[in-house]
Amino acid sequence: MQNATLTAVRNATQNAVQKATQNAVRSPVPDAGRQPAHRVVVLALPGVVPYELGIPGKAFGLAFGPGRAPLYEVITCTPDGRPVRTSEDYAIAVEHDASVIATADTLIVAPISDPMSAGDPLPEPFAAALAHLRPGTRLVSICTASFVLAAAGLLDGRPATTHWMHAQRFRELFPRTPLDPDVLYVDDGDVLTSAGAAAGMDLCLHLIRQDHGSEIANRVARLCVVPPWRDGGQAQYIARPVPDASGNDTAGAREWALHQLHQPIQLAQLAARAGMSVRTFSRRFLAETGQTPGQWLTAQRLELARGLLESSDLPVDRVAEQAGFGSASSLRRHLAAAIGVSPAAYRRTFQGRDRGPAGRRPDDAPG
C-alpha cells in the first residue's frame, strides 16, 4: 500500500513539474542593471526547524565578489506564502509562496521536526511546491529534509545522507537510496544532502567553495565564526565517551600544527605540545576529532594545498612544499586518493573562469 501511494504521488508530481515548467519564466532580479546573482530559494514546510532554516541566508548572504557585489540572492518561501508553524513555540512569516521556486538556480529544503512515519505519503505542500521546479535546478536538503526528497523519488538510486539518529528509519522507508550516515554531506552533482544541524553550514560552505573557490568560502566561514572545513564526518558526533575532565585537550596542539604544516610534524611533538604521553594524546585526539593525528594532518595539508591551487599560480612542486607534502608526486598521490583528480586538473576546475579560451596555464604542463 505504501509503495502504491508513493508511486501515485511521484507520478502526479512529475506530471505537475512537466506541465508547470513548460511555461515557466524566470522573474527578474530587482537590480536589472547588474548581472543576476545566483538565486537560492529556501523552502520552509510546516514543522520547519528554525535553526537550519536560517543557515542558507546567513552563509550565502555573506558571499561577495569584486566591489562587494552579492554572489547570491536568497529568497525564503512557504508552499502558499502564509506563515508556517515551526518546531518551536512560534510561527514564521515569509514574503513569498512556492511560485518563486520557478526562478531558483538552487532550491534548498529546510528540515522538518518529525521525519515521515512509515506509510506516510509525500507531504502534500511539498508535492505542490515541486510543481514550480525548473529542470536543471540544483536540489539541496538539510538534515531530515532528505526524507522529503526521497519520498518524492528524487533520491532513488542516488547516494545521500541524513542525521545519523534517523538513518535506520530512512533505510527502512527508502531502500532505493544508498545512504551514508557517516558523512557530513553528500554531493551527487545536482542533488546534495547534508546531515543534521550544523552540517547544513558545512554543505553551504561546500557549495560556495564549489561555485567561487576557497578564498570566498573561507571568508564566509570566518564571518560566521565556523571552521571552513570539518573533518571526520558524523562519526565524531555519535555516542562517544567523553574524555576525562582534566582540563586538557588537543586543541592547542592542533592550532600549533596548522601554523607548521610546511614542516615535518612528529606525533611526539604534538603530544609534547599538549603535555601528554603519545598514547594518551592519540587516544584523546581520536575522541575529539574522529581521526588519528596522521589522518588529520593529511586532511589539513590537503585543504591548504587546494587553497593554493585555487588562489595562486605557484608550480605544483612549490604548492606541495608549502603544504608539507615534500614533493609534487606525494601531493598528486594524496589528492587523487582524496578527490580523484590531479593538481593540474583541480586548478583548471577552479581557475578556469579566469583564463582565456584555451583554459590552460603554463604550469598545467603534463607531469
Name some characteristics of this structure.
367 residues; alpha/beta; 8 strands
Average pLDDT reading: 81
Quote the beta fraction: 5-15%
Distance between the termini: 58 Å
- The side-by-side strand order for the widest beta sheet comes to 2-1-5-6-8-7
Give the low-confidence spans. 1-6, 16-33, 236-247, 353-367
Q: Please estimate the helix content.
A: 40-55%
- Protein structure class: alpha/beta
Please state the CA-atom Rg, rounded to the nearest Å.
Answer: 22 Å
Per DSSP E runs of 2 or more residues, the count of β-strands stands at: 8
How does the major sheet shape up? 6 strands, mixed
Count of separate DSSP helical elements? 14
3D architecture notes:
- The protein has 367 residues and is an alpha/beta fold.
- It has 14 helices and 8 strands.
- Strands 2-1-5-6-8-7 form a 6-stranded mixed sheet, with helices on both faces.
- The termini are far apart.
- The model is unreliable at 1-6, 16-33, 236-247 and 353-367 (pLDDT under 50).
